[in-house]
TrEMBL record:
<keyword id="KW-0812">Transmembrane</keyword>
<keyword id="KW-0472">Membrane</keyword>
<dbReference type="InterPro" id="IPR000791">
    <property type="entry name" value="Gpr1/Fun34/SatP-like"/>
</dbReference>
<protein>
    <recommendedName>
        <fullName>Transcriptional regulator</fullName>
    </recommendedName>
</protein>
<comment type="similarity">
    <text>Belongs to the acetate uptake transporter (AceTr) (TC 2.A.96) family.</text>
</comment>
<dbReference type="InterPro" id="IPR047623">
    <property type="entry name" value="SatP"/>
</dbReference>
<feature type="transmembrane region" description="Helical">
    <location>
        <begin position="12"/>
        <end position="30"/>
    </location>
</feature>
<feature type="transmembrane region" description="Helical">
    <location>
        <begin position="163"/>
        <end position="184"/>
    </location>
</feature>
<dbReference type="Pfam" id="PF01184">
    <property type="entry name" value="Gpr1_Fun34_YaaH"/>
</dbReference>
<feature type="transmembrane region" description="Helical">
    <location>
        <begin position="134"/>
        <end position="151"/>
    </location>
</feature>
<keyword id="KW-1133">Transmembrane helix</keyword>
<feature type="transmembrane region" description="Helical">
    <location>
        <begin position="110"/>
        <end position="127"/>
    </location>
</feature>
<feature type="transmembrane region" description="Helical">
    <location>
        <begin position="71"/>
        <end position="90"/>
    </location>
</feature>
<feature type="transmembrane region" description="Helical">
    <location>
        <begin position="42"/>
        <end position="59"/>
    </location>
</feature>
Amino acid sequence: MNHPSPTPVKVVTADPGAIGLFGLAIVTLVASSQKLGLTEGLGYAASWAVFLGAFAQLFASIQDAKHNNTFGMTAFGAYAFFWFAMATNWLMKMGTFGPELASAVDGKQLGFAFAGYLVFTLFMTIGAMETNKVLFFIFCLIDVLFLGLTFDAFGAPEFFHELAAYAEMGIGILSLYGCGANVLNAHFGREFVPIGRAFGIFKPRP
């Protein structure tokens, strides 16, 4: 006798965007403080890069994959591995892995990586236009950050270093806002903190 198959239970998981934005916020605030000369050294920055910039965003990426959210999964994953790499680069620069490796680095290699991330972020900025305006402006600032980092790595004038630093500080501040909005809006079940509707250019607004 055939028995009807039980109805599958749909597992609901929380939106990981808030923790991903929180990780991005903290690491960019710390890193920009060093670029702007407000703090010194990269020792503490490396640990925040690993645990907040990298692991928090990697967790958000994995959770977004479970939501079938290709955009969020790719964005958080790509930037998570960026911060893993940056933390490793800083440790190399400080001689953690030995003086031979520290003396063999070529900053222009970072320039090529930054340029690749700039192109990637430009594509993601287009996608962010159809999410919300807070996320769109975060991506715009990330574009400016990678533009400044790319030129700075290839030896451009100091202006580009400062451009990257201020853009990075802006990313941190706006990401904190986005994190808080994400949490409170989900908690209260309505738009408690405004984030701005999608532009509705490439697909209809929900």
